[in-house]
What does this fold into?
Amino acid sequence: MKKLSTKSDVEYFLTQLRVYKNQIDSEISDYSKQVQKSTLQHYGNHSRVATDAYLEILNRGGKRIRGALAMTGYYMSGGTDHQMILKAARSLEMIHAYLLIMDDIQDRSVSRRGGTTAHVALGEYHNQKNLSGNSEHFGVSIALNAMGIGNHAAQVTIANLEVAEELRLKALSILNQSVIITAHGQTSDIMNEVNGEVTMRDVDNVLQWKTAHYTFLNPLTFGQVLAGADCQATDAIREYALSAGRAFQITDDILGIFGSERASGKSSLDDIREGKRTILTLYALKHAEKADRHFLMQMLGNSELSQSEFEQCKSIIVESGALAYTQSEAEKSVQKAVYSIEHSSQNWPPEQNSFLRGLAQYLLTRTA
It folds into this structure.
């Protein structure tokens, strides 16, 4: 068995993630060129508008963590077909791009990963071409078509992976069940924004359903199944995935307010403007002074939130103890994830164990 280098788990994770990302990005780039050519040939210029909008989001980058975890799950379960799992990883990133476009429409976001969101860019295309009708409606309509094309193209790729039929069917089932859970998580997230009575359990359901299942459990088990792993092996990764996934979303919520806008590619005011209920905001609403609590409640969901009002919200979150409490919740989840790997009965290769430990530990120091 190959011996790991003396690098720490986090260093190993970051190094290997870059390797996976470069491979997935190259696969996506090659795939995109083929799609652009075939779309123009079979469906013409109008369809290229939708396809190009989708591919722009797909190619815009990100860490490719979902694709990387699929590859990790595959290799930790004894998989050896690199080209096959690379296509599978690309498909998961395609599903992610589809969901990002949906999320941006629902959140009315104007920026994503340092660029314009798909529906906004398509609305701008409508204006630039002096087309008739409403540009905003056009942008949303074509964006919906674009994300549908991307989603089903990914499904076709998975359905034709060169693995045993029963493994393809099981992987497709896992993926689609995960997206169903994610949709329920997104629905709960939106309902929490408009519901006056939100509990910590409501927020934690979103952490589990919207992120932990989708970003961690789904890609890991998806990759494991494609390598032929049985239910005992996929069950063994569940505690790690749900704990690390919870930590991932908690730290994401912290960065959404306290992180760098340049690093995240989104406005740091968005979460407050959208009225998102997170551990941060819920704890602050419960523990802040009465006047601060009233102010924060008024600002949550305020689409006209100013920079100075946002800074005051941040101060309330810090002074109420919400930031410290939320950070401690992330730490607890990371500890639980690392413990589950260290005490797993599965004989997984040390490289993948180090990758997963490093990922969990990295979540506490991530800046984007």
Observations:
- The first strand starts at residue 111 and ends at 112.
- The chain has a mean pLDDT of 93.
- Residues 9-43 form the longest helix (35 residues).
- DSSP finds 17 helices and two strands in the chain.
